[in-house]
Amino acid sequence: MVSGPADRRGLRRERAQEEFGADADGVLDILELTAMAWRDCCGDITLPDHVVDDIFLVGRGSVPGLARASRLAVVDFRDLRLAAAAMSRLTRSLASVLIPQPAGQFGGGVSGLPRMRTATGR
Questions:
Q1: Residue 110: CB partners within 8 Å, gap ≥ 6?
Q2: I need a surface site. Which of 3, 24, 31, 85 has the fewest CB within 10 A?
Q3: Could you give the count of Cα atoms lying within 13 Å of 71 in the half-sphere of its Cβ?
Q4: What is the overall mean pLDDT for the chain?
Q5: Residue 23: its pLDDT value, please?
Q6: How far apart are alpha carbons 75 and 98 in whole angstroms?
Q7: DSSP one-letter code for 63
Q8: With 0-12 CB in 10 A as exposed, 13-18 as middle and 19+ as buried, what is 61?
């Protein structure tokens, strides 16, 4: 069971190291400061996990981006949620274009790409 800031920091360390490498400790400091501001503004004991996920997503692996996303979480977390949702949609959209699909899934296109339709629909 998570009981305090040190425990939460420990739980977030692996993700911070994966996404930010050598800057992980600074990222964890920013998240801790964000949690303090969140407590003052919202009255909750800590940041909800979904808000932390949105901060990481919108931060896109850059410390300045994470700092901006953290600020947005405290100022208006609904705007952060909208930004994260838009980024998720964009990522899924790009993945569907860039990741080849198995041949035949879209009508037997060459190399997994869909067949182009002509003006007549064929």
A1: 103
A2: 3
A3: 5
A4: 83
A5: 96
A6: 35
A7: H
A8: middle
Position of tokens 């400091």? 29
Among candidate residues 10, 79, 81, 67, the one with its CA nearest the CA of residue 33: 67
Domain boundaries, the chain: 5-91
| Distance between start and end Cα atoms, the chain | 60
Q: What 8-state DSSP symbol labels residue 99?
A: S
Residue whose entry in the numeric block shows the structure tokens 């700092």:
67
How many residues are recorded in the chain? 122
Q: Read off the tokens for 117.
A: 């339709």
Q: Are 86 and 92 in contact (CB under 8 A)?
A: no
User: Structure tokens of 54?
Assistant: 């949105």
Q: What is the pLDDT of residues 5-53, one digit of tens each?
A: 888 899 999 999 999 999 999 999 999 999 999 999 888 888 999 999 9
> What's the Cα-to-Cα distance from 33 to each of 30, 82, 90, 110, rounded to whole Å?
5, 22, 29, 52
| DSSP character string of 23-52 | GHHHHHHHHHHHHHHHHHHH--SS--HHHH
Q: What's the DSSP call for residue 104?
A: T
Other CB atoms within a 10 A radius of the CB of residue 72 amount to: 21
